[in-house]
Design goal:
By secondary structure, the chain is of the alpha+beta class. It is built from 2 helices and 8 strands.
Length: 144
């Protein structure tokens, strides 16, 4: 009976170790981010956006640089890749992939976190009366 308990305890311990290691597996931003992303923001007026990430290159030590286009969904033709040409700063911190960039036209910051492999969530800086920025929620999903 003691042997059975020892074996079961060992197997449970190994299962916990495997699940822990699997949960912290690194995602390769170059593989998962290059895509067309449909987005929405919690702002008044035009709130549908498209983010097209054309390429991502590792720069070393947990950082990458990406190139793409960002714009209102009504202005961004994904086949022609119109919209503002955007440089993306990508970092890996505490097992999370973070993407940040400044919009070309409005010069507002966007900060996103990769959720799984199909969703980006974060904030967009919206200019308020008087010129101050206020963060609003923005999210993207990979275009099917």
């Amino acid at each position: 009976m003691k042997n059975v308990i020892a074996v079961v305890s060992l197997l449970l311990g190994l299962l916990c170790l495997v699940l822990t290691v699997e949960g912290h597996a690194q995602v390769d931003p170059a593989k998962v981010l290059v895509e067309v992303w449909d987005g929405q923001a919690a702002v008044m007026g035009q709130s549908r956006f498209t983010l097209v990430i054309n390429n991502v290159k590792e720069t070393g030590d947990g950082t990458w640089v990406g190139r793409g286009r960002f714009g209102f969904a009504s202005m961004t033709d994904t086949e022609n890749r119109r919209g503002g040409n955007t440089e993306l700063n990508i970092t890996s911190k505490d097992g999370e992939i973070l993407v940040s960039f400044i919009t070309i036209n409005a010069k507002t910051p966007i900060n996103l976190k990769l959720i799984g492999e199909n969703k980006l969530e974060g904030t967009i800086g919206v200019v308020q009366m008087g010129g101050s920025l206020r963060d609003r929620k923005i999210w993207f999903e990979k275009k099917p």
